[in-house]
Amino acid sequence: MNSQQSTKNIKLPFLVAGVITLLLIGIAGFYWFLGKSPVSIVVRNSQPGAAIFVSKSSPAMVSLLVNPDALQTIEQKGAFSQVTNSLLAKSNIDYQNDIKPWLSNEITLAVTTIDIDRDPENGLQTGYLMALATEQPEKSREFLELLFSKRAFAGTNLGIERYKGVKVIYDNFEYSQVENIQNSLAGAVVNNFVLLGNHPQVIKEAINNLQAPDLNLISSLAYQKATQQISKNAVAVTFLNLPEVGKWQGLELAESTYDSQILSLVLNSQGLLAESTFLTNSQVVPPSLPLSQPIGALHYLPESTALAIAGANLSNLVNSDLAKLWKQGTATIYGDSKNAISLLLKPLVEIQQSWGLNFSQDIFSWVVGEYALALLPNSENIIPNWIFVVEKTPQLVAGIAHLDNIASTRGFNVSSLNLDEQKVLAWTQITATSENNTSINVDAKIKGVHTTFDNYEIFTSDLKTLTAILSQKQKSLLKNPKFHNAITVIPQPNQGYIYLDWENSQDIFKRQLPLLKFVEVLGKPLFDNLQSLTVSSYSSEPGTLKGGIFFQLH
Fold first, then answer.
1. Is the pTM of this model over 0.85?
2. How far apart are CA 286 and CA 280, in angstroms?
């Protein structure tokens, strides 16, 4: 059997899968239940206690650090209860009666091993461990007995074993057959946790990790470093051992600058902040020095901006920590960065091809100061208008001349004109047609314009957009309440922002990126309530790349 195929085919027992799904819905669906009142969830532990059961070589661990019932304080119309009951229905387990009385403030899921029996000849048999914190161990044991007695009544042969003083109950059959692992279950109650796994060996190794601390995740230096980056009041945390995740998914970790990642999810009254830190032992540098104030170039973007990208010093982007992360991710998943760009960033590829541009050499190399790029909804055309604002620097004059030269070589006429006494350079495409050999019609289509204003050079797709900026009669993006609220949540100092006004931009990006429609279906509760999305990087310690995504919700 192909090992990669067998990994994909292995499934968890229904109960474990149900709780996993519940956890993911809890993480990805919190915002669905959010009302307009402030969120107040007390997070007692900032680190997963179940890490003592997980091997230091584990590929992945995800933890919910609050009791699911806490979510009911922000729930609407009993949706959470409906989800839990539907997930557990086929297991004959009732959440309210069988789990709620003893469940405490943590649910952790870990991929414990890529191959349980360490025999690649019979396919990769991934080990999964679910750890549920308990406030009442006796009631937890009653739950475990009830769970396995119902499996016995359904015809499953059970095994019971004392392992290092712990009672382990499990489905008793030939585990070498992959189809048996698909529906198998093992369990035990240890140290105020109910442990559930898809193989008795998973439970035994969890006990080993507890009793030999140098084996468990807490003893890992990478994990210790990562947990220092957990956000305050995080309701959920995910830790990834990136080389092991690559092996688990049948991928070779290419361009391996970063070896681990930790993700924290924090709720507030406006939405969800997902903070991620990538860790490395290599030397990495941010693309620019941290900015402690909003970027001045943002003043020239209108309030109606659909997409804004702002920061400083694009010239260093190619050698930065962000570039190394991009190379590692794309090379691992797609083979190389060019393949990823052609699949994920098709609109940018089309712009480069149509203009004969190389962004890195023709634009990024001379942008050493502030910059801001915006896309604007265009009611008259499916193609959005654009704005590019660049701060004046010694490199700017040569950069502008280079762009004008590119426009000229592409067949555009570069001409000067006055716009309300403001000198403007326009890139125009001039065509002439004759009618009946008696008259000639000349048509000039503007492909771009730029001018110097204050301390910036402003490029736009058309004269109308530039006129609105120069008149300064329109509100700036900095006056947009959604944008203001978003950048307030993002820590300062930072390396700038990527801001997406989902309500104004979804039509634009669904046309350009068909994959987005699929993502929207998967995350429907999120996208139905999403107002805006803001991404920022704010690394502050050596060997880390830290950033966040803020989902602002209705």
1. no
2. 14
